[in-house]
Amino acid sequence: MVGTPVLFIAIPLMAAFLIPLLGMIWKELVRIVPGLVLTYLLILSINLLDHVLAHGPIVEVIAGWGPPIGINLVFSALSGFLVVLMEFLGLLVWAYSYRFKRNVDYEPALKYFLMLMMLITGSVGIVLTGDIFNMFVFIEITSISAYGLTAFYKGRNSAEASFKYVMMGSVASTFLLLAIMIIYAQLGTLNMADIANKIHLMNPTLKIVSYIFFVTALGIEAEIFPLNGWAPDAYAEAPGPVGAAFAGIVVKAAVYAIIRYTYTIFDLSGTFNFLIIIGMITLIIAETAAIRQEKLKRMLAYSSIGQMGLVMVAFGFGTEEGVFAALFLMLNHAIIKSLLFFSGSYLTYNSTDKKISEVNGMSKFLPITSLLFALGAFAIVGLPPFAGFWSKLAVMTAAADSNMILIMALVLIVSVVELVYYLRVVNRVYFYKKEADVKPKRPTVNALIVMITLGAIILLVGFYPDAVTGLLHKASAGLMDKTQYIHNVLSVR
Amino acid sequence: MKKVLVILLLAVLGYYTAVTFFDIGFGQPHFVAGVKPVKDIYLAKTVKPLTVSNAVTSIVVNFRGFDTLGEVTVLFLAVTVLGSVLYKKRHAVGERSVLFNASSIVTAGSKLLFPAIILLGAYVFIHGHLSPGGGFQGGVIIATGFLLMLLAYENYSVSHTALSIVESLAGITFAGVGLLGFMHGGTFLQNFLPAGVLNNLFSGGIIPIIYIAVGFKVAAELTGVIYTVLNEKGESNG
Fold this sequence. Notes:
The structure holds two protein chains of two kinds. By secondary structure, chain A is mainly alpha-helical. Chain A has helices spanning 7-25, 29-55, 77-100, 106-128, 132-150, 156-187, 192-198, 204-221, 230-237, 240-265, 271-291, 296-316, 320-347, 367-381, 387-401, 405-431, 445-463, 466-480, 482-490; strands at residues 58-61, 72-75. The radius of gyration of chain A is 22 Å and the shape is globular. In chain B, helix 5 (104-126) packs antiparallel against helix 6 and helix 5 packs antiparallel against helix 8. Chain B is globular and about 60 Å long.
């Protein structure tokens, strides 16, 4: 074996403490080192995932105390898949912003790359940890970096958006801590597998209360209606690559936390229906709100919220097909929405309002960026032969298997709505005349490479979905098998 | 009308939350029958094999040391975020926007108190594994010493570079000790030093080293926060 899961946390932390010192030697190092760290962690995560698929999950104890005394990290097919996805997207976000932040002074640049690296580390930690309080710590790391990135180097509006996020985020932390307190006060343990093993002993009322607190807290980060008031503002005001990082990395981690609590830890009845209901409400409200948006990034933000609603619905089926569909949707949403944020921020680069009406006729000046934006738009709506088609198909078949005809109809209607608002933008890009006062900005080489990579992955998954389905099937089987998870963790000494 | 509705909703929510938490009954062992709470294991293992006299420290730095590394990072990030948010509103280094008129009693007294405060802070974090206190508390005490000096003297300044170096070195020490444990014992943050004799200054393995690093880090970070905020441009002179 080439490494262990704890390196995903230890190395970025070490690098984060080291970067201010390295910056004193050579200023360029603050930009280079995070990229090196993320590249190494991406290679490590792919190697570990390979190992895990062949030999079963890795459970690593920390400080020499086996579960339930100490903290442990679990690298299974599911968490490994998410870690690879997050490190990959993190590397792309880094490469995209490497030159994008050239015009920024030294000190803000140092802080930007620090916060970006910690955002990714926190999200990876949420996915890897097997301890509910440790997860709280990682959620704190993630959300504090997210507050800083939202307010990064801009004016009043971004500070306001960040402040909204801080308020919601503090409420989330409080609820999370209360939920953890209830569980510890009842069961005397913080280890997830140990809790899952003993949860039937718990007082039913307290169990429900703590589940509700968990879902409320994590729902704020996962953008579930009605807890997502911060999201559109934060996406609209944060720099473009940060929007991609939120949609691709942070939200995925929060959704993972919700499903881990729902599938593994709690044994309540009716939670799956609850997920379907909140998912449907989120989906419908976000997609109808997206149609009315005039700013491009706000539209993308609402679309992102809607997709998360659909993911929740798919997880709510409670079947292995449902989990498979949801994981496939998460993968597609991560790559496609990042592409849309990357290319969309170049389409509205020099405008102050970032209005949709300002992208008119950009295809003549930014042909590749426009083409990639159109590709992303078609893919996320679910047109064949792009990646999004297969995940929507998977949701439909999972719904059909669970006899939920109404949800099938809803998914189709929502796809039409998505088609309307994405085609509206694509139409403007290709068939309208450019206004004279709008100055297009050519993408940098790094940004072009990043966007083309994402576009290529979308086509690859679209034409050859078998490349990922095998892994996703293994991951979903792992999530469904609760007793195996408990056994894997508690048998480590 | 809307406000009344909101208050009503909050009242209902608050009532049920309060009832739930009164049910738990904090302060007494109210665990469900049949579970073995980890606190008993923690208390037993603090004396042997860890040989630490302060159970809080053994939990914070050893059993749940990974959480503490995370919390140290949270503080580090909070300082980073504050600096980044206030960057555009800062004066050049050395200029202050918030000034206080200190009387001669304060200026003379703070000179006398400053070394004593630093000494107390250092004592608290060095003896973190023997007596109440530890790295976080000691660090805060030291930061209050610097706050006192900044309040008393208008021209008192702390080198930003020095703070940054102390902060980074302390962080590297914490993570580095963790990685050394990884190389020696096989798991991250594992103890690889001899445990020593209970109640001695040199006992508890790596715990005192980590707590000293945390103390330096917290002190440097909080001093940095105070300094950043004092340098913020006000509405009037900005």
